[in-house]
Amino acid sequence: MPVKKCLIVDDEPAAHYVLANYIRQNPMLELVQQCYNGIEALNYLRDHEVDLMFLDINMPEITGLELLQTLPHPPKTILTTAYSEFALESYDYGVIDYLLKPIYFPRFLKATERFFASVGTENQTHTPAFITIKIDSSVVNIDVQDILYAQSYGNYVKIITPAKTWLATMTTAQLEQSLPSEQFVRVHKSYIVALDKIQASDRDTVTIGDEKIPAGITYRREMADRLKHL
């Protein structure tokens, strides 16, 4: 699957810092340019193609929505703003999603998943039989069907299977991108679980074997929706 090129267009340096940090945590996204107003973005997009644009609505000289109107073929766009009153209007421009500042990482992930779904990535069309992870200086293949759940562990991720617990050199976000989204769900900032391994669930936890795994408030709605369709 080719890495998708991203552009940030925002007049606030703090917004650039947050979005750039989030983008760098996703191995399938590459930040190729940062623009601080609509004119810069317009000039850049005349000569360069990008796959995804993170676009602020409120900017001097030309607003984000005016930039979209000006571009003959705008890239797929996720809008960002501190003002919720623009939400309804923004969807008239065919944007992927609308992020309200301050932008939190789980919400960013959800928006980028909508982007990947819209471009038909391999993760949506092909279910891998195994994932490849780095264990210290070695590389190991783990059968996807064996994975019960994964837990962040400092700078590592613990991947739990019935036979063994693996300590992988990667972030939880990177692991989430490697796993087939139709089989796994994020239930907490520190936990990803296999949907078909869940034996019981309530508002605050899911149960897999003898383990009760916490369900974070940010993830509860999506978790409940996914469990309904099992």
UniProtKB/TrEMBL annotation:
Protein's recorded name: Two component transcriptional regulator, LytTR family
Originating organism: Flavobacterium caeni
PANTHER family the UniProt entry points to: STAGE 0 SPORULATION PROTEIN A HOMOLOG, TRANSCRIPTIONAL REGULATOR-RELATED
Alphabetical list of SMART domains matching this protein: LytTR, REC
Residue ranges occupied by any Response regulatory domain in the UniProt entry: 5-116
Organismal lineage: Bacteria, Pseudomonadati, Bacteroidota, Flavobacteriia, Flavobacteriales
Start and end residues of each HTH LytTR-type domain: 131-229
Alphabetized UniProt keyword annotations: Phosphoprotein
Keyword hit for Cell membrane: no
This protein's record includes keyword Phosphoprotein: yes
InterPro entries given in the database record: CheY-like_superfamily (IPR011006), LytR-like (IPR046947), LytTR_DNA-bd_dom (IPR007492), Sig_transdc_resp-reg_receiver (IPR001789)
GO terms of molecular function: DNA binding; phosphorelay response regulator activity
Modification 4-aspartylphosphate, positions: 56
Coiled-coil residues: none
PROSITE patterns the UniProt entry points to: HTH_LYTTR (PS50930), RESPONSE_REGULATORY (PS50110)
